Structure formats: C-alpha cells, structure tokens
Amino acid sequence: MKRYEFNVLRNEAGDEGDGGGDSGDSGVELKPEPAAEPTPGSLVEGEPVAKPDPATAEPQPKPTQAGQVNYRDLIGEDGNFKENWTENLPDHLKDKASHFSKYKSMQHALEHTHNLQQLLGKKSDAMVIPAADAPREEWDPVLRKLGVPETPEDYGLKAPEGLPEGVSVDEEELKGFASMAHEIGLTKAQVAKLQEYDVERSSKNVESSAEQAAVIETKHFAEQKQILQKEWGTGQQFTENAEMARRAALTFGLSKEEVQDSPLMRNATFVKLMANAGKAMSEDKLVAGGGEHSDGGLKAKAKSIINDKSNPDYEKYWKGDPDTVTKVQGWLANG
Length: 335
Fold this sequence. Notes:
Blueprint: E1 4-6, E2 11-13, H1 91-94, H2 97-100, H3 106-122, H4 136-146, H5 171-184, H6 188-232, H7 236-251, H8 256-261, H9 268-280, H10 298-307, H11 314-318, H12 322-334
Antiparallel strand pairs: 1-2
Helix pairs in contact: 7-9, 10-12
C-alpha cells in the first residue's frame, strides 16, 4: 500500500509515482493538527507572536485623543492626587487650577462636592456677591435684599424732633447725605443710626462750645470791670459813671435790651466813652434816668436800697448812714 505525508511547506511521495490515487481508497493518512501554538503573522517575518489569553490578560488603557487627559495618570498609587497634578488638567480647566489644587484626593473632591450640593439645597435663594468693580445693575438685587432702598428719598430722612438748643438740621444737607448713602449702598437701619450719632455728636459740640464761650465771657467781663474799677473805684463814683454811660448809650440809639446784653456795654473802653459823652452833654439832651420802673434807673436803685433787705446799702440807709441817705435822696430827686 502506498503512504503519503503532507508537510506544511511541501508534499513528498514516499514512493515513486506522482502521488495520485483513486478516490475510493487513496491510502492517504493525515497527521493530526498540533495543539494551539503561536500563530505566525507571515511566512517571511520573524518569529511567531503569541496571542494573549483573554481570560488572564490585564486590560490596557485606551489611547487618548489629542487634547484629552487620562485622569488615571493624575492619581498616585496611594489614591491621592500626584504632586502638581493640576498642571496636567485639560486646557479649559487650567485657569481654575488654584481652585482644584485644594483637593488632595478624589474622595476629598467628591465629599466637598456633596457638601456643596447640600448647602445649595438649603440655600436655594443664596446671594451671589458680584465683583467689587461690577456695574451697579449687578449689585442692585443684592443691595435690595440687604435692605438698601430703591431711591435716596426712600430713606425718609427728616429733622429729628426735640433737637437740643443750638443744634439745627439743614434740609439740603439731609438730601445730600441721603444721596451719598444710597450711592455707597447703606441700608435704612445704618442711615438711621448714623443720623442719631450725628445729632448726639453735634449736641455735645454745642454744649462744649457754650461752656467754653461762657468761661471766656466771664473772664473777659471780669477783666473789663477791673479796668473800670481801677479808674472809677468801687463806690458811688463807679455807680454814677455807669449810669451816665447807660443814659448816653440810650441817647445815641441803643435799646434797653442792647444796653443790657450788647457786648459793647461789656467793653471798658466803650463804656468810658459813653460816660464821657454823657457828661459832655447837657441834661436836657440826655435820655432821662428812666423813671421809677426802668431797669437800672437811679430812682429804681434808690427804691432798691430802701426796700430790698438783700441790698448791701439797705441796712446803712435805715441806720442813717449820711453818705447812703444823701445818695438815695439824690437818686430819688434826679431819677
């Protein structure tokens, strides 16, 4: 019987003949195929390459397209983000690297995101604060929620009642303050508190100024009186010269109130001038002594000595002191 073997690369006949035979019983014996072996990719290229076993092979990362980032490369073996990991962020996130850099791990980022979501759920109406240089229309909704009125007039500013003496409020200044307060975004409560503070401050300043003025005026009056007493003495001459100055001032047009309250009549030089002018005038040209009821009139002074027990000359007069009696009688005659 003829036997034939088939080789991968060639066929060889074991006997002479051309390897042919009839189809009924060719006598051909085929060798079994070998177990799975590495499969060559080509007859003319290198050694065969083994195919990986899908059951045991580790999955390989898919290649990324240009501009994309494989986020697994950002995480180290310890589960934390690698050092300077934000430098490898995609281009559209690199400008937010300072925000992302605070996260140390994926877990940290997820927990923070969860917390933010909870916060937004509770604060669905939370205000977003615009940038400091944002236009006014972006700030208006925030200012409304804070309590800033829509217009300066809505502050309702007006002069407070019961202002202390010496403290006044100018309506134009109030309008100017309201406009400024609205421009810088003050609330109604803040403006009311500032107005209250301003009134209190002004009151203290007025009180302090009045006290200082009173001290200065008292000191000045004492100094001017000493000048007159040095020249006129403190007795009858002083009284007569002072009365003459008063009559002359009235003659030249000062009212009784001005003679009493005018700073001129608290100036030693002016008072001496009036006294000398009165002496130079004839009696019929001077205003009369003032009559029985005039303030400061000679007759009134005489009656004060006679009737007022607190008058220092009262006791002298009733004890018959000659000088006092003569003075009183003269005033009664000429007043």
